[in-house]
Request: fold
Amino acid sequence: MTSADPVRWGILGAAGIAESSFLPALAETGDGRAVVVGARDGARAERWAEEHGVTRGVEGYEAVVQDPEVECVYVPLPNGLHAAWTISALDAGKTVFCEKPLCGTVEQTERVLAVARRSEGLLWEAFVFPFHDQIERARSEIAAGSIGEVREIWSRFHFRLDDPSDIRMSAELEGGATQDVGCYCIRLARLLFDAEPDLPGVAAGAVWERRVDAELWGILPFEGDRRLQFSCGFQSAYDTFTRVIGDDGELRMTNPFHPETGDSLEIVRDGHVLTSESAAPGPEHSFTSALRHIHDVLRGTEEPRHLAVDEALGNARAIAALLAAARTG
Reply:
């Protein structure tokens, strides 16, 4: 690949997040294009491709994975299908950007990561916020001692899911609030604490509907008497507010995950706001910085960061422990 060549993507499934998040960000990178989308219904794939500026629509996912023109595969399928199609794409030598959670279980995650370690392609789990300037600023403030030693993180990720037939309410497809949005709170805590949680100390409760967690709240302890306290769910208004609490102050983010215009990062001490900065990634979409990084890695101008082989298993293990605690608690 030369710097003039666009990175060629294939998309598995005509999913809403591909339309609302992936494709706008891909356009913003200026150096990538979607050459094919596959769907179970070939006619639908063709219509979707024409509507959203994808070169071709084809029937099925295998046609995308095996397409010699495709370099990277975006996997926005239901959670329960992530493992099989990520493995298929990796085995075909493609680089893969798989929606979170990477897989619905620890066992599936381990199997996918084993394939990724021997594959020619690279694998990212689609947490894009670690690539945002806001998170780099937060980590820098913490490292500089702006709030003292971090003791606790309080985090929420909620939105209202009104469609009972939504795939995120399917136990068979590994749905549920923790897999869908609680995973963000867990990933953020692991990143800011720069550590893995102490899973025997997990505590959690949940509201169950159709055998999935419609809401979950929990405590995830970390070494040194540190902890994440969080809640997530499908039953209340959109909220992503997060507080990083140190022994000398707080760092507050209105949206650490997908910041937009109006979102902020604040340093607070003794109840007074010392600094307040805009958290929005400029005019760009939330996904753009992550996709730009993938393109730069493939061109050899950056070393890969936040690869799934380095970071995905910790989240899978924490989610499994939280759901087990909620079921027994």
